[in-house]
Amino acid sequence: MSCPKVAMVTGANKGIGLAIVRALCRQFAGHVYLTARDEGRGMAAVQTLQNEGLDPHFHQLDITDLSSIRRIRDFMRDKYGGVDVLVNNAAIAFKGRVVNIASIAGSMALRQCSQSLKEKFRSEDITEEELVELMENFVEDAKKGVHTQKGWPNWAYGVSKIGVIVLSRIQAKELSHKRGQSKILLNSCCPGWVKTDMAGPHATKTPDEGAITPVYLALLSEEDIEPHGQFVCEKKTQSW
């Protein structure tokens, strides 16, 4: 008997993550795992969805704890043979889908960078090591108060989203080279300005509306070959 397909959403006990789990429970033909750092809050979120007639599964995951990451990796590998859909709101199977939650703030911050930094972040040849070095440079420059003189925008959140978008591009390229037959699609996306604890009550989208683009990318069919390595807003690929 073959294993059911499985989708996993990180940081999913509230906000956009919870809305993505809700939508996947309704649209994904397989098991959907809601993960959260705090088991109590995660189980409470599962209960909320069960009260809506949905059937999510739960597994504890703290993405800052290597032992926690290894536990869920081993669990998914042993029970399902891998993961079909991974939504990073905070091993993948053949034809899997990976969605990294970023923000349009990344594009906006890039436009505020110096020409030299723009060229580095847009380079098709940038490596993960080079990206990490750039991010570390920003942190050190910001600590010293010289980041604007070095060509950085005065916007830590925006720069962090540059990192997510560029890392997604790098990872997608590596997947294409190393796993040419696996047909894994990896993209980053902006859910929009969503009413969350961070964005506040004046944002224009509900969490369910913010989940639309991430879920669209998570449910790309097995026949789809794109988008891949792209930054997507409102289900449309954005130039970088």
Written description of the protein model:
This protein has a single domain (6-104, 167-238), classed as Rossmann fold. The model has no long low-confidence stretch (mean pLDDT 94). The protein has helices at residues 15-27, 39-51, 66-80, 104-111, 115-122, 128-144, 156-178, 207-210, 212-218, and strands at 6-9, 31-36, 57-60, 83-88, 92-101, 185-190, 231-233, 236-238. The protein is α/β, with parallel strands linked by helices and 240 residues long. Helix 4 (104-111) packs across helix 7 (156-178) and helix 6 packs antiparallel against helix 7. Strand 1 (6-9), helix 1 (15-27) and strand 2 (31-36) form a beta-alpha-beta unit. An 8-stranded mixed beta sheet has the order 3-2-1-4-5-6-7-8, with helices on both faces. The protein contains 9 helices and 8 strands.
Task: Provide a compact summary of the structure.
It is an enzyme of class 1 (oxidoreductase). It comes from Polypterus senegalus. The chain has nine helices and eight strands.
Q: Any chance you could write out the topology, listing elements then pairs?
A:
Blueprint (H helix, E strand, L loop, with lengths): L5 E4 L5 H13 L3 E6 L2 H13 L5 E4 L5 H15 L2 E6 L3 E10 L2 H8 L3 H8 L5 H17 L11 H23 L6 E6 L16 H4 L1 H7 L12 E3 L2 E3 L2
Parallel strand pairs: 1-2, 1-4, 2-3, 4-5, 5-6, 6-7
Antiparallel strand pairs: 7-8
Helix pairs in contact: 4-7, 6-7
The CATH topology, please?
Answer: Rossmann fold
Q: What is the name of the CATH architecture?
A: 3-Layer(aba) Sandwich
- Which percent range fits the helix content? 40-55%
* Total count of helical runs of at least 4 residues: 9
The side-by-side strand order for the widest beta sheet comes to: 3-2-1-4-5-6-7-8
* Unreliable sequence segments: none
SS elements, strand count: 8
Mean pLDDT: 94
Structural class: alpha/beta
Specify the CATH class: Alpha Beta
User: Radius of gyration over alpha carbons?
Assistant: 18 Å
Q: What is the number of independent domains?
A: 1
**What portion of residues belong to β-strands?**
15-25%
* Strand/helix succession: EHEHEHEEHHHHEHHEE
CATH level-4 homologous superfamily:
NAD(P)-binding Rossmann-like Domain
Distance between the termini: 44 Å
- The gross shape turns out to be globular
The biggest beta sheet is recorded as:
8 strands, mixed
